[in-house]
Amino acid sequence: MKYKKIWLDGFREIKNTIGRFLALLLIIAMGTGFFVGIRAAAPDMMAIADKYYQQVNLEDMSIQSTMGLTSEDTAILDDIDGIQYEAYAFADRQVADSEDLVRFYPNFNASGELNQFAVTEGRLPESKTEIALDSQLAQTNESIYGIGKEISLSDLGVTESEDIEAPALSEETFTIVGYVNSPLQISNISRGATSIGDGKLNGFAVVSPEVITGDIFTSIAIDITAADNLTAYSDEYNEVIADKKAEIETAFEGRPQTVYDETVTEATEAISSGQAEIDSAQKALADGASKISRSQSQIDEGRDALNRQQSEVEAQLPEGVTLAQAGLSSVVAQLEAGSASLDDAQSQVDSARKTYESESIKASESLSSAESELAEAQSTVDDLEVPVYHINDRSSVNGYTAWENNAANMSTIGQAFPVIFFLIAALVSFTNMQRMVTEQRTQIGTYKALGYSPRVIQIKYLMYASIAAILGMVIGIPIGNYLFPNIIVTAFADTVALPGMIYTWQITDISLAVLISLLTTVLPAYITTRKTLRERTAPLLQAVAGKNGKHIFLERFKGFWHKLSFQSKITWRNIFLYKGRNLMTIIGVAGCTMLIVTGFGLSDSISDLPQDQFQQIKTYDGYVTLNMDASQEEREAVIQTLNNQEQVNQTLSLHQEVMTTNDPAITQQIVTVMAFNPESDFEDFFLLEDLSSEQRLDLPDDGILITAKLASLLDVTTGDKIVLTDTENVEQSFVVKGIVTNYLGHDIYMSEQYYADTLGTDAEVNSAFVQFEAGTSNDDQTGIMEKVKDMPGTIGSQLNAGLISDFEETLAALDLVTVVLIISAGGLAFIVLYSLTNINVSERMHELATVKVLGFRSLEVSMYVYRETLFLTLIGIIVGNFMGYGLLSYILETISIDQIYFPIVINWDSYLFASFITLVFSLIVMVFMHIKLKNIEMVSALKEED
Known about the structure:
single chain, seven-stranded mixed sheet, six-stranded mixed beta barrel, elongated
């Protein structure tokens, strides 16, 4: 019976204090939802990736070599247990109409089980003239890449080598039959590097395996059997891969030298054989000349002998008598026959000489060309180096490590950000329950006087706290577990090609949320009631005496103190009298303001990046990639054509190429290398501004300027060296002389002379950057680029308008995170302010009733409390603004997208908006409390203290 009464009284208490109950319930719901949801994001991201890798059977390892791979390499793998492998080749080519650089993969779905393509629309190719395209590439130009349309390839990427072993395409025209995603191209931000064009791949394509010809493989994909059932990115998975990688590295230990020796030997033998053929041909030419010379000599000797014979016979005849007159007709006939015979022989020799001279010229040209080719071949052999075998794990897959880093970043944020949110909620819920029990001392004393045991009395308060906490958790945890991971994954969705959401339940985090919720609601109810129930019944039935007033240190400043009004003096005394409660208010308001400032700061830091990048840092509007196989005159004609356009302000000629990072600790990054002529107007196109001092930097003579994000990823500073790999797989070392601001992509800048000194080759002009007149429309810009597109000196062009659009799309998803953060923080701020203000009013009900009896009007009674609340709120807002900057700095340093550098920016109006929102919530709460204060029953309130 007693339990029933207590339970009924507990439910009645919920009904009578529904505002407090809902505030407690909602703050627990928000705290647990935010805590569980944010911390679930990283495991959900891992689960999404692992499921996808399992579905497409992503390779565990791969092997590449700077000299290509052959069947002899696969034979080594045949002797290694516990693996399956598939060797394949790909070819990089340019689409003629769009100028996109595309990597052509064989259809892995038809040729094996690894690296399966995921069809997003249409189907995979079934004949040699069909093709499936990268789904991301297809979105960039639907008019060219629509299903059913036909695309042709340009000559870019076609090698002039007669080496039939090198990978190549047997077809030049294809019909698009579908769109796909590839596990080898997880990242949508970059498709990797290529040795053709401007060095940056725009996408990939899938063709039937027989379309890719040649005997050389470009890669061997490896599946580790022992890792099949292990979770990607897990320590167990990484250990298995590391062990197998070490085993494969041991198996290939002597292979590079063997390949080098075989290649050199084969090339040397071929050169020797070619030289022997040249020597033989030269000997044949010499023999032919010698034979003609001997024949001519024989004819000359025969004519001399015939002339001598005729002269001897004529010498024996009388003077003036001919051979015919002398009756020597037979001799005449004999001489004429001999002369005719010599004439025939001479004619044959002349014909042979003419033929020889004609053929000799051709042969000499052929021999000269052959000698040049042999000399070039010998130079190539001399320059040959021992090949490098790259035995990679999944970190070499484009986007694999980036997704892991994104998940790790979210995990790091989950260690701090939701904890702050939850602690604020827990702080307020603890205070709420503690105050509730304190307010009901008299009722507890009544229960005790009626004979209720302490354990039975506690049930009411424990029930109240438990129901609020449990309902809050039941509402908050499921919503948070689904809402926040979904928002976060959506924010990263445009950066990767991974399938939809997978939701996981993180039992540890949920258990921790439940524990904290109960500790901050049930525990204070238990401790406070236990402490209260230890007192005697009589004291419990009496009101607790209020705190005695004390002098405060402000009173020492008599000039200041005497000028204050009576109510101002009361306000200051109460602020110092209730230090604990007021500190709680400041902490709660500061925490909420901090979260709101952080939300606005995120928006400020990312919203202007596209404009800052392409209007301040890089002020060019596009660039043309020149065809280095064309003549110098043809390339100069392209630049001249651009300069002749009225809407072109100016152009900048420079050398540009692509290199990649080789630091195993980070995802391979694409780096654009630019070499300027220091005398050019490059400063009109690029703002080279020091990241820290924001001062312009001069182009160094003995080093490079590196962009901020790349410096951060490589962990380098001024004076350090960085090593990059060029498209020929040769490592190049550069000295960092400065770090410059840049928000998108990775660039390094240097002088032409430093480039030549470092790489040992001239920095030939291969790009023309274009700056249009202000106000030139996108259509006009495109039209101008079209004019040079088909010129022989051009192989491609790029306008910044497309990059700006892509950049904005990448950042757009982060706006959703910002909105959710601001809304969550605003909601928390409202509940915190409501709870703390409600506690403040409840604690001082007798005091407020007293001043009301003394003649204070309703507004004056409210302001009696609200002066303190407003003052404390303002202090909390000021503190929260400072804390918001610190939290934003932490988040932006933690949320890392490889290709994007986030500056820490909070505009002044964001501070104002955050302060305004907190202040508005505070005023709304005051309005509610004012209504409550107007309805105070003075007699009842005063009796509570009697």
